[in-house]
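User: C-alpha coordinates in, sequence out, please.
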Protein backbone atom coordinates (compact mmCIF):
# COMPACT_ATOMS: atom_id res chain seq x y z
CA UNK A 1 0.00 0.00 0.00
CA UNK A 2 2.96 2.31 0.43
CA UNK A 3 6.25 2.92 -1.32
CA UNK A 4 9.18 2.09 0.97
CA UNK A 5 12.37 4.13 0.99
CA UNK A 6 15.30 3.31 -1.28
CA UNK A 7 17.20 0.11 -0.51
CA UNK A 8 20.50 1.95 -0.14
CA UNK A 9 18.88 4.34 2.35
CA UNK A 10 17.79 1.42 4.52
CA UNK A 11 21.29 -0.05 4.39
CA UNK A 12 22.75 3.27 5.51
CA UNK A 13 20.17 3.68 8.27
CA UNK A 14 20.85 0.27 9.80
CA UNK A 15 24.38 1.46 10.50
CA UNK A 16 23.45 5.04 11.43
CA UNK A 17 20.62 4.09 13.79
CA UNK A 18 22.80 1.45 15.44
CA UNK A 19 25.47 4.11 15.96
CA UNK A 20 22.80 6.24 17.66
CA UNK A 21 21.82 3.29 19.85
CA UNK A 22 25.47 2.72 20.77
CA UNK A 23 25.78 6.38 21.72
CA UNK A 24 22.60 6.23 23.80
CA UNK A 25 23.80 3.31 25.90
CA UNK A 26 27.44 4.38 26.16
CA UNK A 27 28.14 4.89 29.86
CA UNK A 28 24.59 3.94 30.88
CA UNK A 29 23.73 1.28 33.42
CA UNK A 30 23.30 -1.78 31.21
CA UNK A 31 21.42 -3.57 34.00
CA UNK A 32 18.76 -0.85 34.12
CA UNK A 33 15.24 -1.98 33.26
CA UNK A 34 13.85 -0.77 29.93
CA UNK A 35 10.55 0.97 30.84
CA UNK A 36 8.85 0.10 27.55
CA UNK A 37 10.10 -3.52 27.61
CA UNK A 38 10.17 -4.26 31.36
CA UNK A 39 11.22 -7.87 30.87
CA UNK A 40 14.54 -6.61 29.45
CA UNK A 41 17.56 -4.81 30.81
CA UNK A 42 19.33 -2.30 28.61
CA UNK A 43 21.92 -4.99 27.86
CA UNK A 44 19.15 -7.44 26.87
CA UNK A 45 17.73 -4.82 24.50
CA UNK A 46 21.10 -4.21 22.85
CA UNK A 47 21.71 -7.95 22.46
CA UNK A 48 18.24 -8.37 20.94
CA UNK A 49 18.89 -5.65 18.35
CA UNK A 50 22.37 -6.90 17.48
CA UNK A 51 21.19 -10.50 17.29
CA UNK A 52 18.33 -9.55 14.98
CA UNK A 53 20.75 -7.74 12.68
CA UNK A 54 23.09 -10.71 12.51
CA UNK A 55 20.23 -13.17 12.00
CA UNK A 56 18.81 -11.16 9.10
CA UNK A 57 22.29 -10.65 7.68
CA UNK A 58 22.94 -14.39 7.69
CA UNK A 59 19.63 -15.03 5.94
CA UNK A 60 20.75 -12.63 3.21
CA UNK A 61 24.32 -13.90 2.97
CA UNK A 62 23.28 -17.54 2.66
CA UNK A 63 20.18 -16.81 0.53
CA UNK A 64 18.29 -18.92 3.05
CA UNK A 65 15.12 -20.62 1.84
CA UNK A 66 13.86 -21.41 5.34
CA UNK A 67 14.09 -19.89 8.80
CA UNK A 68 17.56 -20.07 10.35
CA UNK A 69 18.01 -21.36 13.91
CA UNK A 70 19.92 -18.95 16.13
CA UNK A 71 22.76 -21.44 16.53
CA UNK A 72 23.50 -21.19 12.80
CA UNK A 73 24.19 -17.46 13.06
CA UNK A 74 27.89 -16.65 13.69
CA UNK A 75 28.49 -14.54 16.82
CA UNK A 76 24.75 -14.34 17.46
CA UNK A 77 25.49 -13.02 20.95
CA UNK A 78 28.47 -10.99 22.20
CA UNK A 79 31.35 -12.72 23.94
CA UNK A 80 31.09 -11.70 27.60
CA UNK A 81 29.68 -8.73 29.49
CA UNK A 82 32.31 -6.09 28.77
CA UNK A 83 30.52 -2.93 27.52
CA UNK A 84 33.34 -2.32 25.02
CA UNK A 85 32.85 -5.79 23.57
CA UNK A 86 29.09 -5.19 23.31
CA UNK A 87 29.70 -1.86 21.55
CA UNK A 88 32.08 -3.39 19.00
CA UNK A 89 29.72 -6.35 18.48
CA UNK A 90 26.79 -4.03 17.75
CA UNK A 91 28.84 -1.98 15.28
CA UNK A 92 30.19 -5.02 13.45
CA UNK A 93 26.79 -6.69 13.21
CA UNK A 94 25.10 -3.64 11.73
CA UNK A 95 27.94 -3.04 9.27
CA UNK A 96 28.02 -6.68 8.19
CA UNK A 97 24.27 -6.84 7.64
CA UNK A 98 24.26 -3.60 5.65
CA UNK A 99 27.10 -4.92 3.50
CA UNK A 100 25.24 -8.18 2.82
CA UNK A 101 22.10 -6.28 1.89
CA UNK A 102 23.96 -3.96 -0.47
CA UNK A 103 25.65 -6.91 -2.16
CA UNK A 104 22.37 -8.81 -2.54
CA UNK A 105 20.28 -5.89 -3.79
CA UNK A 106 16.60 -5.45 -2.91
CA UNK A 107 15.24 -8.15 -5.22
CA UNK A 108 17.29 -11.15 -4.07
CA UNK A 109 14.96 -13.97 -3.04
CA UNK A 110 15.30 -15.17 0.56
CA UNK A 111 13.12 -16.65 3.29
CA UNK A 112 10.93 -14.35 5.35
CA UNK A 113 7.89 -14.77 7.58
CA UNK A 114 6.08 -12.14 5.48
CA UNK A 115 4.55 -12.36 2.03
CA UNK A 116 7.48 -10.31 0.67
CA UNK A 117 10.37 -12.79 0.46
CA UNK A 118 13.14 -10.48 -0.63
CA UNK A 119 16.28 -8.85 0.70
CA UNK A 120 14.44 -5.56 0.39
CA UNK A 121 11.95 -6.70 3.02
CA UNK A 122 14.77 -7.42 5.47
CA UNK A 123 16.48 -4.08 4.79
CA UNK A 124 13.30 -2.25 5.70
CA UNK A 125 12.43 -4.56 8.62
CA UNK A 126 15.83 -4.25 10.29
CA UNK A 127 15.86 -0.48 9.83
CA UNK A 128 12.45 0.01 11.41
CA UNK A 129 13.12 -2.56 14.13
CA UNK A 130 16.07 -0.35 15.08
CA UNK A 131 13.96 2.83 14.90
CA UNK A 132 11.64 1.49 17.60
CA UNK A 133 14.30 -0.09 19.80
CA UNK A 134 16.39 3.07 19.65
CA UNK A 135 13.40 4.73 21.32
CA UNK A 136 13.44 2.00 23.99
CA UNK A 137 17.16 2.49 24.59
CA UNK A 138 16.84 6.27 24.73
CA UNK A 139 14.04 6.08 27.28
CA UNK A 140 16.01 3.63 29.44
CA UNK A 141 19.19 5.68 29.21
CA UNK A 142 17.25 8.95 29.68
CA UNK A 143 18.64 10.62 26.58
CA UNK A 144 16.71 12.58 23.91
CA UNK A 145 15.08 10.71 21.02
CA UNK A 146 14.27 12.19 17.63
CA UNK A 147 13.47 10.45 14.35
CA UNK A 148 13.59 11.61 10.74
CA UNK A 149 10.02 12.23 9.49
CA UNK A 150 10.23 9.78 6.59
CA UNK A 151 11.47 7.00 8.88
CA UNK A 152 8.78 7.73 11.49
CA UNK A 153 6.08 7.65 8.79
CA UNK A 154 7.52 4.47 7.29
CA UNK A 155 7.44 2.86 10.73
CA UNK A 156 3.70 3.56 11.00
CA UNK A 157 3.11 2.29 7.44
CA UNK A 158 5.04 -0.90 8.04
CA UNK A 159 3.34 -1.65 11.34
CA UNK A 160 -0.09 -1.28 9.72
CA UNK A 161 1.05 -3.66 6.98
CA UNK A 162 2.29 -6.18 9.57
CA UNK A 163 -0.95 -6.05 11.58
CA UNK A 164 -2.98 -6.50 8.37
CA UNK A 165 -0.78 -9.47 7.44
CA UNK A 166 -1.29 -10.98 10.89
CA UNK A 167 -5.05 -10.60 10.53
CA UNK A 168 -4.98 -12.27 7.11
CA UNK A 169 -2.92 -15.12 8.59
CA UNK A 170 -5.47 -15.69 11.35
CA UNK A 171 -3.67 -14.22 14.35
CA UNK A 172 -6.28 -14.35 17.15
CA UNK A 173 -5.53 -10.86 18.49
CA UNK A 174 -5.50 -9.20 15.08
CA UNK A 175 -8.66 -11.11 14.12
CA UNK A 176 -10.59 -9.02 16.65
CA UNK A 177 -9.75 -5.78 14.82
CA UNK A 178 -13.10 -5.59 13.07
CA UNK A 179 -16.54 -4.07 13.48
CA UNK A 180 -18.25 -1.77 11.01
CA UNK A 181 -18.61 1.94 11.45
CA UNK A 182 -15.53 2.60 13.60
CA UNK A 183 -12.28 4.28 12.58
CA UNK A 184 -8.99 5.74 13.84
CA UNK A 185 -7.35 8.87 12.42
CA UNK A 186 -3.70 9.73 12.98
CA UNK A 187 -2.79 13.33 12.16
CA UNK A 188 0.77 14.63 12.39
CA UNK A 189 0.82 18.31 13.26
CA UNK A 190 4.40 18.97 12.20
CA UNK A 191 4.69 17.20 8.82
CA UNK A 192 2.40 17.97 5.84
CA UNK A 193 0.17 15.14 4.58
CA UNK A 194 1.28 12.70 7.30
CA UNK A 195 -2.16 11.31 8.09
CA UNK A 196 -3.60 7.81 8.34
CA UNK A 197 -7.18 6.55 8.41
CA UNK A 198 -7.81 3.05 9.80
CA UNK A 199 -11.35 1.81 9.11
CA UNK A 200 -12.93 -1.26 10.70
CA UNK A 201 -15.25 -3.46 8.67
CA UNK A 202 -17.11 -6.66 9.41
CA UNK A 203 -14.34 -8.71 7.78
CA UNK A 204 -11.37 -6.85 9.24
CA UNK A 205 -9.76 -3.46 8.87
CA UNK A 206 -8.31 -1.43 6.04
CA UNK A 207 -6.09 1.62 6.12
CA UNK A 208 -4.89 4.40 3.86
CA UNK A 209 -3.01 7.66 3.98
CA UNK A 210 -5.90 10.10 4.20
CA UNK A 211 -7.66 12.80 6.19
CA UNK A 212 -11.13 12.01 7.48
CA UNK A 213 -13.56 12.22 10.35
CA UNK A 214 -13.08 9.23 12.63
CA UNK A 215 -14.36 7.62 15.82
CA UNK A 216 -11.11 8.59 17.52
CA UNK A 217 -8.34 10.93 16.39
CA UNK A 218 -4.77 11.16 17.64
CA UNK A 219 -2.95 14.41 16.84
CA UNK A 220 0.62 15.43 17.57
CA UNK A 221 4.20 15.45 16.27
CA UNK A 222 4.86 12.61 13.85
CA UNK A 223 7.52 10.93 16.00
CA UNK A 224 5.13 10.92 18.96
CA UNK A 225 2.31 9.43 16.86
CA UNK A 226 4.71 6.68 15.83
CA UNK A 227 5.68 6.05 19.44
CA UNK A 228 2.04 5.80 20.56
CA UNK A 229 1.21 3.45 17.70
CA UNK A 230 4.15 1.25 18.69
CA UNK A 231 3.15 1.37 22.37
CA UNK A 232 6.23 3.38 23.38
CA UNK A 233 4.27 6.45 24.49
CA UNK A 234 0.97 6.44 26.36
CA UNK A 235 -1.96 7.78 24.30
CA UNK A 236 -2.90 10.05 27.21
CA UNK A 237 0.53 11.71 27.16
CA UNK A 238 0.50 15.50 27.08
CA UNK A 239 2.70 15.25 23.97
CA UNK A 240 -0.31 14.18 21.87
CA UNK A 241 -4.00 15.13 21.69
CA UNK A 242 -6.65 12.41 21.79
CA UNK A 243 -10.12 13.27 20.52
CA UNK A 244 -13.16 11.01 20.53
CA UNK A 245 -13.49 7.41 21.68
CA UNK A 246 -10.23 6.69 23.53
CA UNK A 247 -11.35 3.11 24.18
CA UNK A 248 -11.17 2.35 20.46
CA UNK A 249 -7.52 3.34 20.32
CA UNK A 250 -6.88 1.23 23.43
CA UNK A 251 -8.68 -1.65 21.69
CA UNK A 252 -6.33 -1.33 18.70
CA UNK A 253 -3.18 -1.07 20.80
CA UNK A 254 -4.11 -4.09 22.91
CA UNK A 255 -4.69 -6.27 19.84
CA UNK A 256 -1.67 -5.20 17.85
CA UNK A 257 0.90 -5.97 20.54
CA UNK A 258 2.09 -9.33 19.21
CA UNK A 259 5.58 -10.00 17.92
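Assistant: Sequence out:
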Amino acid sequence: MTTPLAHERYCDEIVSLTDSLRTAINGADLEATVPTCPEWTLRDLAVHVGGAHRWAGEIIRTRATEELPDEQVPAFTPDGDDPAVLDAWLAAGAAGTAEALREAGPDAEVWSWYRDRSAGFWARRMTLETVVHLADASLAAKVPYTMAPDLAADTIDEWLEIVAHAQAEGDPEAAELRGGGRSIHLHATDVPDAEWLVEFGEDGFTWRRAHGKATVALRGPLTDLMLVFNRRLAPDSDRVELLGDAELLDFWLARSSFG
